[in-house]
From TrEMBL, chain A:
This is Acyl-CoA dehydrogenase. It comes from Streptantibioticus cattleyicolor (strain ATCC 35852 / DSM 46488 / JCM 4925 / NBRC 14057 / NRRL 8057) (Streptomyces cattleya). It comes from the Bacteria. GO terms for molecular function: oxidoreductase activity, acting on the CH-CH group of donors. The lineage of its organism: Bacteria, Bacillati, Actinomycetota, Actinomycetes, Kitasatosporales.
Length: 194, 394
């Protein structure tokens, strides 16, 4: 547990996420960067040196618009699959860190993790993570399925963040990490309809 | 025809389970109208005892050696002692009508308790009675009015009385109790978790009284309240009393039965959710825009929880009982059944719940799953423990 907390309390966790994002690019399009349907590319600073820092991304990721043609559909789909899995892992890490943190905190003489409301909130997030795993394992993935898994992970991620209290709002912490996952989903998984 | 694809479930013999599914699905076809009738009058099951689905429920989990005609299909014989086969059977019957399925005579949960805890003599007497020519309804009496289904806190008392015992207390929300001939009552013989016993009770015993509790939906479950006043209990009615140590009976049996039955209950919820989605598809074959996306989202979630439920049931058959995963799949299936009915009511437009009796019934029925076999809150505590122990998302 402590290692998970360290991972997400440490600003390098954001850079670890950015490196995992680069790995998603490589898995979908080896040696290249995948552009969204609108021509946006988001990657780590190292991978996209000319990019502009993503607002709220704490310097871990940069973006570039209009610099690349949209990726072919099959590449974009493969990248989107990787992105949703990365999102799930990020929420899971934030949840693990919250459990570790609450296990160390006491209020009114009691361990916060022993509060039934807290336990219910942890379980709710875990249930969404379990469902996301099962949905991603189904045959014939669709853009609609990825989008709704992403939406549910956004909700679950914010619930996991609430367990961190105000520390979840610190720029170098899990709040920025989950902001990046939401921004990536908005960029790459958006159906294109307003 | 279901719009949820039938993926082969895990297990040693996918062909066998496919044969079973097809056989039960055929029997479930005739349950829709009868289910609506039972919703209006829960005693109407008595008029449908000739249906093939009733035969399946009567024989479900009764060992084949007790049956003159066990369930046979495609060259296979089924007794549903496999949790996966039991789950598939109940899912398909619930696709026909969950209320009808629960109104049927047969062992249901009491059979799982007798199988888990009873000695040879007790099992023999129980199964002989269940396999007899007359339909026998059973009940599983765990929940109490003041304690819910918290097995460790139950208060129904088993007190020594001469060479036997007497039973005093109350049970609530027990399916079929007011109509049953026998069932299992969980009670306390001594303080602490090891003082809990499971007792086979004949409902004709003096001091046993049960009456139906009117409910919003799932009226076929015939949920009842039981009062027990000086009910005479012989030592041989206590499951496993002469063969199992106190650490292996009573509470252990309650937990084991609930865990074994939760995928089956999840199968009931999945069957109902499938029925809801297919009903939407029939009434609105080509939804567009947001309606289509909402439909597809629920359909996908249903496919995911159904697949997970089969995995959990197969794991139980393989001897692996993971409380956190069992709790999670029951919770997800119960929530999804409710959500499917809510989405269906929206997709079928204003007034659909008033104008469409079948949708109305499913909409009410789906709300029962939240509390059956342990509420969502209780299940969440098991999931939480799995997160802390790092087993749940492993």
């Amino acid at each position: 547990m402590a290692s998970a907390e360290t991972r997400y309390a440490d600003p390098t966790a954001l850079h670890g996420f950015a490196r995992a994002l680069d790995a998603c690019h490589d898995a979908a399009a080896p040696g290249a960067l995948v552009a969204s349907g609108d021509g946006w590319v988001i990657a780590s600073t190292a991978r996209l040196p000319g990019g502009v820092p993503v607002p709220g991304g704490a310097g871990a990721a940069v973006a570039m618009a209009g610099g690349a043609p949209a990726a072919p559909a099959e590449v974009l789909e493969a990248f989107a699959d990787g992105l949703v899995r990365l999102h799930r892992e990020a929420v899971r890490g934030v949840l693990d860190a919250a459990v570790a943190r609450l296990d160390q905190r006491r209020s009114e003489g009691a361990n916060l993790l022993n509060r039934q409301l807290v336990q219910g909130a942890v379980a709710d997030v875990a249930l969404v993570l379990s469902e996301a795993e099962d949905l991603l394992a189904l045959a014939d993935p669709t853009a609609g399925r990825r989008r709704h898994v992403h939406r549910r992970l956004v909700t679950a991620g914010r619930a996991a963040l609430q367990l961190h209290g105000a520390s979840g709002f610190v720029a170098t912490g899990p709040g920025s990490l989950l902001h990046l996952t939401e921004l990536l989903g908005n960029t790459y998984l958006h159906p294109g309809e307003r | 025809m279901s719009h949820t694809p039938d993926e082969p479930p895990p297990g040693p013999d996918p062909h066998r389970t496919a044969v079973l599914r097809s056989h039960v699905r055929e029997a479930a076809r005739e349950l829709r109208e009868a289910g609506l009738e039972i919703d209006r009058d829960p005693t109407a099951i008595d008029r449908h005892l000739h249906l093939a689905a009733v035969d399946i429920m009567r024989r479900c989990t009764v060992p084949v050696e007790y049956l003159a005609e066990p369930v046979r299909a495609g060259g296979h014989t089924f007794d549903m002692s496999s949790c996966l086969e039991h789950t598939i059977t109940i899912e398909e019957l619930s696709y026909g009508d969950a209320g009808f399925m629960l109104a049927c005579p047969g062992p249901l949960m009491s059979g799982v308790a007798v199988s888990a805890l009873g000695d040879d003599k007790q099992r023999h007497a129980y199964y002989q009675r269940l396999a007899g020519p007359d339909p026998v309804w059973t009940f599983f009496g765990l929940t109490e009015p003041e304690k819910g289904s918290a097995a460790t806190e139950l208060e129904t008392a088993l007190t020594p009385d001469g060479d036997g015992f007497r039973l005093d207390g109350a049970k609530a929300y027990v399916g079929n109790a007011a109509y049953a001939q026998l069932g299992v009552v969980f009670c306390r013989r001594a303080p602490g978790p090891l003082g809990i016993e499971a007792v086979l009770v004949d409902t004709s015993s003096p001091g046993f009284h049960a009456e139906p509790i009117p409910t919003v939906g799932m009226r076929g479950a015939r949920i009842s309240a039981i009062t027990l006043r000086d009910v005479r209990v012989e030592r041989e009615q206590i499951l496993g009393y002469d063969t199992l140590k106190p650490t292996r009976r009573g509470l252990v049996g309650a937990i084991r039965t609930l865990q074994r039955f939760r995928p089956v209950l999840a199968g009931t919820a999945v069957g109902l959710a499938r029925a809801v989605l297919d009903h939407v598809r029939e009434q609105r074959p080509a939804p567009t825009g947001t309606a289509r996306l909402r439909y597809e989202e629920v359909r996908d979630r249903l496919a995911a929880v159904r697949r997970r439920n089969y995995e959990v049931a197969a794991a139980i058959d393989a001897g692996s009982v993971r409380a956190d995963r069992i709790a999670a799949v029951k919770t997800r299936a119960a929530e999804l059944a409710e959500e499917a009915t809510v989405v269906a009511a929206e997709l079928l437009g204003p007034g659909a719940l008033a104008a469409d009796p079948y949708l109305n019934k499913l909409h009410r029925d789906a709300r029962a799953f939240e509390f059956m076999e342990g509420t969502g809150h209780i299940q969440r505590l098991a999931v939480f423990q799995g997160v802390v122990k790092r087993t749940f998302l492993a």
